Amino acid sequence: MADQLDAIDRKILVELQIDASQSLDEIAKKVGASKTPVWNRIRKLRESGLIKRETVLLDADKLGLEACFFVLVRTSEHEKSWQDKFLKTLKERPEVLEAHRLAGDIDYILKVRVRNAKAYDKFYQALIGEVKIFNVTALLSMEEIKSTTFLPV
């Protein structure tokens, strides 16, 4: 898909990543095209699945979710049924912002956002109550240096 994008498509994608609430007129002006072709391009980008969805970014600290933990999970279970249950559990937990399956010594890494250490412990207790896990290591982020959803196009 990336090789099918031209310069105008890329400019549109940059503008949408900066602020998806911009009007079509604003985007068209910034990318040097007229409104209707810009709308058609955005529609095609949505239909192709390249634009997954449009949303807003909230300030976690202002919502009282001040603790960000990176949770390293090692398992001794590698059966499909265990993995299905584990993934279902993760998807049902609103505290889990991201989950990645890894190559190497650690099987999964989770990004978990909660109010404080006590809230993390509650999450942890619920997680190990749902699925058997060999080892869990929680790392508290002391400072967020960079966080972005902006992809280079």
UniProtKB/TrEMBL annotation:
<dbReference type="InterPro" id="IPR019887">
    <property type="entry name" value="Tscrpt_reg_AsnC/Lrp_C"/>
</dbReference>
<keyword id="KW-0804">Transcription</keyword>
<feature type="domain" description="HTH asnC-type">
    <location>
        <begin position="5"/>
        <end position="66"/>
    </location>
</feature>
<protein>
    <submittedName>
        <fullName>ArsR family transcriptional regulator</fullName>
    </submittedName>
</protein>
<dbReference type="Pfam" id="PF01037">
    <property type="entry name" value="AsnC_trans_reg"/>
</dbReference>
<dbReference type="InterPro" id="IPR036390">
    <property type="entry name" value="WH_DNA-bd_sf"/>
</dbReference>
<keyword id="KW-0805">Transcription regulation</keyword>
<dbReference type="GO" id="GO:0043200">
    <property type="term" value="P:response to amino acid"/>
</dbReference>
<keyword id="KW-0238">DNA-binding</keyword>
<dbReference type="Pfam" id="PF13404">
    <property type="entry name" value="HTH_AsnC-type"/>
</dbReference>
<dbReference type="InterPro" id="IPR036388">
    <property type="entry name" value="WH-like_DNA-bd_sf"/>
</dbReference>
<dbReference type="GO" id="GO:0043565">
    <property type="term" value="F:sequence-specific DNA binding"/>
</dbReference>
<dbReference type="GO" id="GO:0006355">
    <property type="term" value="P:regulation of DNA-templated transcription"/>
</dbReference>
<dbReference type="InterPro" id="IPR011991">
    <property type="entry name" value="ArsR-like_HTH"/>
</dbReference>
<dbReference type="InterPro" id="IPR011008">
    <property type="entry name" value="Dimeric_a/b-barrel"/>
</dbReference>
<dbReference type="InterPro" id="IPR019888">
    <property type="entry name" value="Tscrpt_reg_AsnC-like"/>
</dbReference>
<dbReference type="GO" id="GO:0005829">
    <property type="term" value="C:cytosol"/>
</dbReference>
<dbReference type="InterPro" id="IPR000485">
    <property type="entry name" value="AsnC-type_HTH_dom"/>
</dbReference>
